Q: What sequence folds into this?
């Protein structure tokens, strides 16, 4: 049974990945053709010709249409076949799916589910994207041989940082600090503060901290699989309050998780920061640290996924720190169940009268 939620916005690519060339991507197990139209907008089509199944990405552009490289069937950006060489009649079934696309902040978002439900207002955003006091920087793309659920769970789990990222994003000072979890809103949030402790490697390098700091991690997970981590540090002597994080060195690490298949995931990551605004030297320095940390996650997640494919001798255990991930799995299951069924009850059904 699939774990892939279709009625959601996913990141298909960075804007810089898409140009006038025909490029094939695989999203939620489906091949997708992406290219820029003559007006600069991104077009997204099912990447398979309905005639002999050749990927349309093996064909060529003719203006804003795509000609199949096998027998010349030609499709517009709405997925409609507009030409069949050798015959005038175009079969109604000669079509491919066209997917809704939105492009914002240098990110190409795609909707792979019911197009009637694609609401652009649901696309992920943060106020800091629009604030001149913050610097936005696109990072890279982490390719993981893992189901996306494990990747997303890792991003609402502050407890792993002390052990997986000992030299970059965590250290031993946080091992026994309680994790707070909130599951009341649309996002699952897990967080903790570590007071009067040695700074982590990331903020020694980027923030220039040498003495003890107060530091925080707030992990936000938005269904189905977009995560952002609000983390930072301030001198312990400043005694900053929890709602005064902007006065410290504050970073948002954003993770746009795209399931390629049940066994393969791409995590495109970027960051927003309130220090060294406009300085690309700082961006490069932070990229190097993030790449080190994320390679540590990759090793863990791929090993977990590989073991999950083996027969289990016993049931896995759950700990107190698993509250966020457990709620996340339950919510994903609910989304999948709604996609598997259709609500045909309709209004005005007199057979049942509900009082709740």
A:
């Amino acid at each position: 049974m699939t774990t892939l939620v279709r009625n959601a916005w996913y990141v298909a690519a960075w804007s810089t990945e898409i140009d006038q060339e025909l490029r094939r991507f695989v999203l939620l197990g489906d091949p997708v053709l992406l290219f820029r139209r003559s007006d600069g907008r991104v077009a997204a089509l099912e990447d398979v010709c309905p005639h002999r199944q050749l990927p349309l990405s093996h064909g060529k552009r003719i203006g804003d249409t795509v000609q199949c490289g096998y027998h010349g069937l030609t499709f517009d950006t709405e997925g409609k076949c507009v030409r069949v060489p050798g015959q005038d009649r175009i079969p109604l079934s000669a079509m491919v799916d066209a997917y809704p696309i939105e492009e914002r902040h240098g990110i190409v978002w795609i909707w792979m589910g019911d197009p009637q439900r694609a609401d652009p207002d649901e696309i992920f955003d943060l106020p800091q994207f629009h604030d001149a006091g913050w610097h936005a920087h696109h990072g890279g793309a982490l390719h993981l041989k893992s189901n996306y659920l494990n990747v997303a769970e890792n991003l609402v789990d502050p407890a792993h940082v002390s052990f997986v990222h000992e030299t970059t994003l965590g250290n031993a000072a946080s091992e026994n600090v309680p994790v707070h979890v909130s599951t009341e809103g649309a996002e699952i949030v897990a967080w903790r503060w570590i007071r009067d402790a040695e700074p982590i490697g990331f903020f020694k390098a980027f923030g220039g901290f040498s003495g003890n700091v107060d530091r925080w991690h707030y992990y936000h997970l938005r269904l189905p699989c977009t995560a952002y981590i609000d983390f930072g540090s301030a001198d312990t002597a400043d005694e900053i309050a929890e709602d005064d994080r902007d006065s410290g060195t504050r970073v948002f690490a954003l993770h746009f998780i795209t399931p390629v298949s049940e066994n393969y995931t791409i995590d495109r990551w970027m960051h927003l920061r309130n220090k060294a605004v406009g300085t690309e030297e700082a961006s490069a320095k932070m990229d190097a640290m993030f790449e080190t940390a994320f390679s540590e996650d990759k090793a863990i997640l791929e090993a977990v996924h590989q073991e999950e494919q083996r027969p289990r001798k016993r049931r896995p255990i759950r700990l107190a720190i698993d509250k966020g991930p457990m709620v996340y799995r339950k919510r994903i299951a609910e989304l999948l169940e709604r996609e598997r069924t259709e609500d045909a009850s309709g209004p005005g059904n007199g057979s049942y009268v509900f009082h709740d």
In short: The mean pLDDT is 92. The chain has two domains: 9-117, 129-331. Helices lie at 148-154, 161-164, 201-205, 280-308, 323-340.
